[in-house]
Amino acid sequence: MTRFSLSVAAAVAALLLTVTPVAAVPGWSTPLSVFTARFGPAHSMALDSHGHPLIASEGGLHPGIWLTTNQPSGGGGASWFNLQLTHKNDAAPSIAVWNDRFYIAFVRLDPNNGHSLGLWTATNATGTVVVTKLDSGPDYSPSVAVRNGRWAIAFHQAGSHHRLVYINNLGGTWQSETVDGTCCHGTLSLRLDSAGNPRIAYSDGGPQTSTGLKYAARSGAGTWAFQTVDTRQVDTPTLVLDSNQKPHIVYVWISNGIWYAVRGASWTVSHVNNAFLNTPDMALDASGHASIVTGNNGEITYVTNSGTGWASTQLTFTHTDSQPEIETYQGKSKVIFNRESGGSGDGIYFMKQL
């Protein structure tokens, strides 16, 4: 277990950032470079109660998990800053926020062969950053959720077959269970419903042998129920629950674009656009309407549906952008993405709806 003070570390390690001049899209802020890193670091974003973004990411050429935020309580005032949380070969961070504190799950990789050395967490829940090893693995693709300051994490565990594992300390002690013993690949997406019950979207089968998009929901009695949402070869789902606890999932149908599924009396699936090279992401407005970001051919697109069909706005035009994520606050969207031009401006960029 590693501990250090967030305020002291921020004072020593924070890097104040400046705007990179890029043409703005009407209704959106100019893209802002918030973290400089090469090779498209994996990242995850959540918002605090005031709408400040907290971004967990890999470090690119600087190993470890990094936190990027403009959250005033983090020691950076109104400016963006970067804080290195770990210094190992760590990857695939997933972040959640509770009571304006961050909770990050990630995997540690062997620097010699890239194999997983287990599942780790980092949090400043007590005011001091604490880094803890949870599982020896080999674990991959964690997705984290938090309720009342306690953890819930779903992840893949490799073996003779990949299995889907769910661990949590929602009841006060850590519990672990196998959700699906013969699955899965790619990223997955965990959410907790209003009662604290887990729901998970994941791709079944292997990378080239996907047998469909699965949705797993556990009841309060601890029983898992499974539904097949789409039987085609799919990948990289994002799950969001609306205010009525109805699941919405956006995902890639491999080589056939971005698709969106919502559960009513049954699952309804619709085609969003033809972007399939990057993971899509989704947020919902107060009415349960989806806002989706996609990346294709180096361009980021924002797609919405207010009930009359999908409408698209292209956000970037540099042909160097990928891996977008989205969150909403008070009806306005906030987006991050990677820029990979091979130059000094590479890294994570942020833009928001005005």
Kindly report how far apart the N and C termini lie.
Answer: 42 Å
Architecture per CATH nomenclature, i.e. the level-2 architecture: 6 Propeller
Residue windows where pLDDT falls under 50 for at least 5 positions = 4-21
> How many independent structural domains?
1
Reported for the largest beta sheet, the result is: 5 strands, antiparallel
CATH secondary-structure class: Mainly Beta
Rough shape?
globular
Order of helices and strands: EHEEEEEEEEEEEEEEEEEEEEEEEEEEEE
Number of helices in the DSSP assignment: 1
Describe this structure in words.
By secondary structure, the protein is mainly β. The protein contains 1 helix and 29 strands. It has a single domain (2-352), classed as Neuraminidase (6 Propeller), CATH 2.120.10.10. Helix content is 2%, strand content 55%. The strands form 7 sheets. The chain has a 5-stranded antiparallel β-sheet with strand order 1-10-9-8-7. Strands 2-29-28-27 form a 4-stranded antiparallel β-sheet, with no helix packed on it. Strands 3-4-5-6 form a 4-stranded antiparallel β-sheet. The longest helix is centred in the first third of the chain and has 8 residues, at 6-13. It is globular and about 50 Å long.
Write out key terms for the chains shown.
single chain; about 350 residues; Neuraminidase; five-stranded antiparallel sheet; 1 helix; globular
Could you give a short description of this structure?
The protein is mainly beta and 354 residues long. The chain has 1 helix and 29 strands.
